[in-house]
């Protein structure tokens, strides 16, 4: 069906606004693809990636998420192709995070169950974590599948809608003051004090096994992309939104394993209000971003890069970008409407960050040149979450309520 002219004009207007948006940029002079692949394979060895893929793909409700071809967005972004890996349907939980947290819960439960089983065979383990919303959902879902308890730590920036979704999965909620990084520390202390199993998606030391398990789970999405792109030319760029950098490092590890001879450029995208990867790459060391990190991109509101992910990011990321909050609803609306016949996609506030950055870069010739983006480029990006908080989605995308 032909889009009415007024709707087309409105979408064009949104794209125009996105293309004039400000983007912060740091080029990483230490990026070294070969070295990155060596480091990434130490971080997530082949066996860990294969084990995660075999396990996750054996779950009864597993299906690969769609890889969408978006020629309308490619045109608007002035590149040859854009693919969007749409993680919104993942296990009914709305984000890629389901791959990591639930896999780690299962791994621990299989190995430590004997220690905590009651006489009637009930698993008495308690799993705990901190979350911006999505990781907690994955852990709570993974625990519930196994009949276990979960306790999830939330900082004040996590919305009531996301809290309700966690409770619906059986999680007990503890609200703490401060930022995501503070809630990570609270969850770790509670785990140590109570003998609970901590399933973190980040760490500040090399001792904690859970971030590696979580990240091994994320590599399943690379496996799927490789299969889905079988007949196509490979991407030249991958835009990956980053919180603690676990997803970006896992994708680098997965891509290095599957396409070792031809790795694309990896570009991270963060909120201007929480750019810990960008600042760390700029400073050549992990630096902490202070403050409330009060960004609409709640899943990316992290002030500290994961210790495990950092060496891979330092060698593997070519460019770090940061975008302002005000362009997020513009990009969500563009995606919801669908550009020039592209499928309409429900992208959440953090989920849309990669597409938002790609469109914002399109209007800046110098930045395009620096990133090596041209009409021949093929860009892969990820809708890392769908409408995981329906009330926030409805407030930011008025077209969604008009349609219902
Ligand atoms: C929707 C979404 N996208 C991206 C990320 C970033 O992942 P990471 O923190 O591993 O960098 C998160 C993290 O919670 C998220 O929830």
List keywords for this structure.
404 residues; alpha/beta; Rossmann fold; 2 domains; seven-stranded mixed β-sheet; 11 strands; binds pyridoxal-5'-phosphate
Provide an overview of this structure.
By secondary structure, this protein is α/β, with parallel strands linked by helices. The chain has two domains: about 5-95 and about 210-404, Rossmann fold, CATH 3.40.50; about 95-205, Rossmann fold (3-Layer(aba) Sandwich), CATH 3.40.50. Helix content is about 45%, strand content about 15%. A seven-stranded mixed β-sheet has the order 1-10-9-8-11-3-2, sandwiched between helices. Helix 2 (about 35-45) packs across helix 10 (about 245-260) and helix 13 (about 330-335) packs across helix 14 (about 355-360). It is globular and about 65 Å long. The structure holds pyridoxal-5'-phosphate. Pyridoxal-5'-phosphate binds near residues 97, 241, 245, 248 and 350.
Q: What is the count of DSSP helices, taking H or I runs of 4+ residues?
A: 17
N-to-C series of helices and strands: HEHHEHEHEHEHEHEHEHEHHEHHHEHH
- CATH-defined topology of the largest domain: Rossmann fold
The N- to C-terminal Cα distance equals 19 Å
The name of the CATH architecture of the largest domain is 3-Layer(aba) Sandwich
Please report which band the strand proportion falls in: under 5%, 5-15%, 15-25%, 25-35%, 35-45% or over 45%.
5-15%
Ligand names: pyridoxal-5'-phosphate
Question: Main beta sheet, described?
Answer: 7 strands, mixed
Overall structural class, as computed from helix and strand content, comes to alpha/beta
Shape: globular
Mean of all residue-level pLDDT scores: 94
Query: Can you give the helix content as a percent range?
Result: 40-55%
Strand line-up across the major sheet = 1-10-9-8-11-3-2
């Amino acid at each position: 069906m032909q889009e009415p002219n007024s709707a087309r004009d409105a979408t064009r207007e949104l794209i125009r606004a996105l293309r004039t948006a400000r983007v912060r940029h740091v080029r990483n002079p230490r990026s070294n693809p070969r070295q990155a692949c060596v480091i990434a394979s130490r971080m997530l060895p082949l066996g860990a990636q294969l084990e995660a893929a075999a396990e996750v793909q054996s779950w009864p409700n597993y299906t690969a998420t769609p890889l969408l071809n978006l020629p309308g967005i490619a045109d608007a972004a002035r590149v040859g192709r854009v693919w969007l890996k749409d993680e919104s349907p993942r296990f009914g939980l709305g984000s890629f995070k389901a791959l990591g947290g639930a896999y780690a819960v299962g791994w621990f439960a299989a190995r430590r169950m004997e220690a905590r089983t009651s006489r009637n065979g009930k698993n008495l383990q308690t799993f705990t974590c901190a979350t911006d919303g999505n990781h907690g959902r994955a852990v709570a879902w993974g625990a519930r599948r196994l009949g276990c308890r979960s306790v999830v730590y939330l900082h004040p920036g996590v919305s009531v809608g996301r809290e309700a979704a966690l409770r619906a999965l059986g999680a007990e909620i503890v609200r703490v003051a401060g930022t995501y990084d503070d809630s990570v520390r609270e969850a770790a202390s509670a785990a140590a004090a109570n003998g609970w199993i901590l399933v973190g998606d980040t760490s500040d030391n090399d001792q904690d096994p859970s971030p590696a398990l979580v990240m091994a789970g994320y590599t399943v999405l690379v496996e799927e992309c490789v299969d889905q792109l079988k007949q196509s030319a490979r991407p030249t760029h991958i835009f990956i939104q980053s919180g603690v950098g676990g997803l970006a490092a896992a994708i680098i590890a997965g891509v290095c394993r599957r396409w070792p001879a031809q790795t694309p450029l990896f570009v991270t995208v963060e909120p201007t209000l929480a750019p810990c990867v960008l600042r760390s790459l700029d400073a050549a060391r992990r630096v902490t971003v202070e403050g409330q990190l009060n960004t609409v991109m709640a899943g990316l509101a992290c002030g500290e890069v994961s210790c495990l992910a950092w060496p891979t990011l330092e060698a593997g990321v070519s460019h770090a970008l940061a975008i302002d909050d005000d362009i997020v609803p513009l990009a969500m609306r563009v995606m919801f409407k669908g550009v020039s016949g592209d499928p309409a996609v429900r992208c959440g506030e953090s989920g849309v960050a990669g597409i938002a950055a790609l469109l914002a870069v399109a209007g800046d010739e110098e930045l395009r040149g620096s990133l090596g983006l041209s009409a021949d480029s093929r860009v892969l990006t990820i809708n890392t979450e769908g409408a995981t908080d329906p009330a926030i989605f409805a407030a930011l995308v008025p077209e969604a309520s008009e349609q219902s």
